Amino acid sequence: MNLKQLKELGFTDGEIKVYGALIKLQKSTITKIIEHSGVSSSKVYLILDKLVHRGLVNYIMVDNVKEFHLANPENILDYIKKEKEKLQEAEKNVQNLVLDIKQTIGSQIQESAHIYRGLAGLKAAHLRLINELKRSEEYVFFSVEKSELEQEAVKLMFKSIHTRRDEIGVTARGIALPQLKHLYTKYLSSRKEYRIRFYDLTINQGITIGKNRIIIETAHPDAFAVEIISPKTAKSYKEFFNKIWKLARP
Fold first, then answer.
1. CATH number of the domain encompassing residue 60
2. What distance in Å separates the CA atoms of residue 111 and residue 73, rounded to the nearest whole number?
3. Pair (126, 243) in one structural domain
4. b/e per residue 36-69 (b: at least 16 CB within 10 A)
5. What is the CA radius of gyration of the chain?
């Protein structure tokens, strides 16, 4: 008789040997079970307890000695049914756990930093910042320098960024040097939900601040940006921006 199928149910080799011995003996004291199974006495006691718990073995007391009996073999099917039910319940519980883990992971932003080179990289960084915002949410920025804004390639890059911003309904506020007023008036007057103020603050790089991201950039001639992903740092930068915004003028 091949009892190896029981391994698929999680039975150990020792459990299969003890169960096989009882199939031959049908009823027996532990001494004969040890003899026929070849399993040590220290293990047989534990194994019989497991088989009794699974409903595959019964016992009675005869002269104060346990006599083990083979239970109805169909109890194996009952055991499988119970294990299936346990697995189904475990599956439901694990599905809920997986959802909880996903929600926890989703709500926690892993702090990190990335470097981008070239205008295509800068554009990608800005779009990542914008795309994580919802309609009516805003990002803020300190403008890049005049020499950069006057470059045609830079103008086209920012034009495409603001087009995307308009599409998803994200708003923006920016602070620029007073000498950039004519450029912003000319190129951004038609943009929706876009406000700009001017303040004589010297910052060598542009800084864009979103919900969880900050982009520190130089747009030309060697386009370069550092993207910092940190909600805490973004909040701090935005608080600084708002202080300057109160001092700035339209």
1. 1.10.10.10
2. 59
3. yes
4. bbebeeebbeebbebbeebebbebeeeeeeeebe
5. 36
Is 0.70 surpassed by the pTM of this model? no
Tens digit of pLDDT at every position of the chain (250 positions): 778 788 878 888 888 888 888 888 888 888 888 888 898 888 888 998 888 888 888 888 888 888 888 888 888 888 888 888 888 888 888 888 877 776 765 655 678 889 988 888 889 999 999 998 998 899 999 988 877 877 888 888 888 888 888 888 999 999 988 888 887 777 665 566 788 899 987 777 889 999 999 999 987 767 888 999 998 899 999 999 999 999 998 8
CATH, residue 213: 3.30.870.10
- Domain around 130: 112-247
The token pair at 115 is 């470097």
Q: Are residues 169 and 243 in the same domain?
A: yes
- Residues 135 and 72 reside in one and the same domain: no
Judge if the upstream peptide bond of residue 221 is cis by omega within 30 degrees of 0: yes
Number of domains composing the chain: 2
Q: Of 115, 93, 136, nearest to 225 (Cα)?
A: 115
- 212 and 140 together in one domain: yes
How far apart CA 115 and CA 102 sit, in angstroms, is: 27
Neighbours of 17 (CB within 10 A): 19
